[in-house]
Design brief:
With about 290 residues, the protein is of the alpha+beta class. The chain folds into 2 domains: about 130 residues; about 120 residues, FlgT, C-terminal domain (Thrombin, subunit H), CATH 2.40.10.410. A hairpin with a 4-residue loop joins strand 6 and strand 7.
Length: about 290
């Protein structure tokens, strides 16, 4: 029994030691696993936090993506509008360029027209100077003509014209009282000559010789003539006369100014080179 006890005791001690070793190892492993579990739980918690953070970031990213999509659409709309504006701007620029070219052409034309107008103005000024000089000459001619009229009137004051016979015997009748008395006296004198016998003294019964009406002066520069008929002969402003030369009709005159024994009458420009001094005139039938 004593031997069995000695054998069992070491065995028990070994078993106890083995149990204690296993127990210590198990406790160690348990502690180790527990630490690992704690660490894993912490990692899981961290992963959960990360997952939640990631999900939150994902939601934020989705919101940002939605906002960016909206902004992209707005930007696309703006780009389209800008593209249209750019096209319109290009069209307006092209039109403006065309208008600018047209303005340049118009400006060049205006410059040319201005130069032409300046040249014409210079010509008109030169013509004005020439006209002034011509007016001076005309004034001198007018003064000379008026002096000539006065001299001719003064020279014809003592001459009784009575009836004036023109164009083969057509009379111009003076309707004034003095003219009628002159015409009556002339008729009586002519009748007395016609009724007097041939053997009577003709010297005392010869009628006064009546001059023919004619053109005295021709002014081709201003298209008028001076005729040897005036207010004494019954001529008035507006009377018209026919011009003849050797029985051939040339044209017409219209009285514009009347003096006592002569008048000024105008004619059309086409008669300028046809009318001559001493051409015969006769009153036109009204």
């Amino acid at each position: 029994m004593y031997r069995k006890g000695k054998i069992i005791l070491p065995v028990l001690i070994v078993l106890i030691i083995i149990s204690l070793s296993f127990g210590g190892a198990s406790f160690y492993l348990y502690q180790k696993e527990h630490a690992k579990n704690i660490q894993l739980q912490e990692q899981i918690s961290q992963l959960g936090d990360r997952q939640r953070a990631t999900e939150k970031r994902l939601e934020d990213a989705k919101k940002t993506a939605s906002e960016l999509t909206l902004k992209l659409q707005e930007a696309s709309s703006k780009v389209e509008a800008l593209t249209k504006d750019l096209a319109q701007g290009k069209s307006a620029l092209t039109e403006a360029s065309n208008k600018l070219e047209q303005f340049k052409a118009d400006l060049a034309q205006q410059k040319t027209l201005r130069q032409d107008l300046e040249n014409k103005l210079t010509e008109v000024q030169d013509e004005g100077k020439q006209i002034k000089e011509q007016l001076k000459i005309v004034q001198q001619q007018k003064t000379e003509l008026e002096a000539k009229f006065k001299n001719m009137e003064a020279g014809s004051d003592g001459v009784e014209l009575g009836k004036v016979v023109v164009n083969g015997g057509v009379p111009i009748v003076d309707n004034t009282a003095k003219g009628k008395s002159k015409a009556k006296a002339a008729k009586q004198k002519i009748a007395a000559v016609a009724l007097k016998p041939a053997d009577q003294d003709v010297k005392t019964t010869t009628p006064v010789i009546v001059p023919e009406s004619k053109i005295m002066i021709v002014n081709k520069e201003f298209n008028f003539v001076v005729i040897n008929l005036g207010s004494k002969d019954g001529v008035s402003v507006g009377d018209e006369f026919s011009i003849t030369r050797e029985g051939k009709y040339i044209g017409d005159l219209k009285v514009e100014k009347v003096h006592d024994s002569m008048s000024a009458a105008g004619f059309s420009p086409e008669l300028k080179d046809l009318i001559k001094e001493n051409d015969k005139i006769a009153p036109k039938a009204k």
